[in-house]
Specification:
This protein has 312 residues and is α/β, with parallel strands linked by helices. It is globular. The chain starts with 17 loop residues before the first helix and ends with a helix. It binds phosphoric acid mono(formamide)ester and norvaline.
């Protein structure tokens, strides 16, 4: 069946089928090739895109801005102090106003519920550029990068190490489950993803596909990909010291990379990275090409999401 995502919001990968995610990855690869060839798009011509940011961003903001301009659209940055969202004006009212002006809304902030309300009341596609719970556009870029590196996704042994219950741990677990990757989350038990989400992901697994949660760092054995994220996410700065101490044994270093038993294992990171904490400078620099391909792919995948859901 042909995939049609017109008008659909992108709030969590849970709302998307394997075929739809596959379509978005392939569209991203296409758009990347077009940009490399200097071909300018016009699928967002005449479209206005609102970019709401409650938290800071380098990649996501720039990816939405450049991706929108590349396709002929107009991006409008709305920082947390620029609009009334959730202060004197309710999210519902802001959404109803923005929906009359804009053809799509990006939201980066704290609560997933805010993203959902924006989608419900604006009547235009809303794209989740990161909430405390999920970071779905990042996962599209990650899957695209893995596909570029290995040529396929199904059967890849994907290992995520560190803070297993943050937006990245949650979203990567969903992305792996949907796309046929084996996923191992290595984290202290107190930082495992919520049981209900784990159960949802287990229910999606295909035959021979695994989802493992463990505290044991030797579980990196046979990994094709080792992925980590910051130990202290935006908005959790007050927990920094305790988190750093708890996660010390989970640093991605040369010893951990060697433990995979594979020389071709790649290292990935959504960035920004705190070198010397979740990853050593040595591992990061050795794998920098892939990490920055992954960062570049944010732009192609975010463009694909806008084109597929709000494009002409
Ligand atoms: N990976 C990511 O979302 O980066 P930014 O915080 O810079 O947008
Ligand atoms: N878990 C991180 C991801 C940053 C892209 C955070 O939320 O800060």
């Amino acid at each position: 069946m042909a995939v049609n995502l017109k008008g659909k919001s992108f709030l969590t990968l849970l709302d998307f089928t394997t075929a739809e995610i596959d379509y978005l990855i392939n569209l991203s690869l296409d758009l990347k090739a077009k940009k490399r060839a200097g071909i300018i798009g016009d699928t967002l011509l005449g479209k206005n895109i609102a970019l709401i940011f409650e938290k800071p961003s380098t990649r996501t903001r720039c990816a939405f801005t450049v991706g929108c301009l590349d396709e002929g659209g107009h991006p409008e940055y709305l920082g947390k102090n620029d609009i009334h969202l959730g202060k004197i004006e309710s999210i519902e009212d802001t959404a109803r106003v923005l929906g009359r002006y804009f053809d799509g809304i990006q939201f980066r902030g704290f609560s997933q519920e805010t993203a959902e309300k924006l989608a419900k009341y604006s009547g235009v596609p809303v794209w989740n550029g990161l909430t405390d719970e999920y970071h779905p556009t990042q996962i599209l870029a990650d899957l695209m990068t893995i596909k570029e590196q290995f040529g396929y996704l199904k059967g890849i042994n994907f290992v995520y190490v560190g803070d297993g219950r943050n937006n990245m741990g949650n979203s990567l677990m969903i992305g792996c489950a949907k796309m046929g990757l084996n996923c191992t989350i290595i984290a202290p038990k107190s930082l495992w993803p919520e049981e209900s989400l784990v159960d949802t992901c287990i229910a999606m697994l295909g035959d021979d596909q695994e989802l493992i949660l463990t505290e044991d760092v030797t579980a990196v054995k046979d990994a094709d990909v080792i992925y980590t994220d910051v130990w202290v996410s935006m908005g959790e700065e007050d927990q920094a010291e305790a988190r750093m101490n708890l996660l010390k044994p989970y640093q991605v270093n040369e010893k951990m990379m060697t433990r995979t038993g594979k020389t071709e294992t790649i290292f990935m990171h959504c960035l920004p990275a705190v070198k010397g904490a979740e990853v050593t400078e040595e591992v990061f620099e050795k794998h920098a090409t892939v990490v920055f391909d992954e960062a570049e792919n944010r732009m192609h995948t975010i463009k694909a999401v806008m084109v597929a859901t709000a494009g002409r």
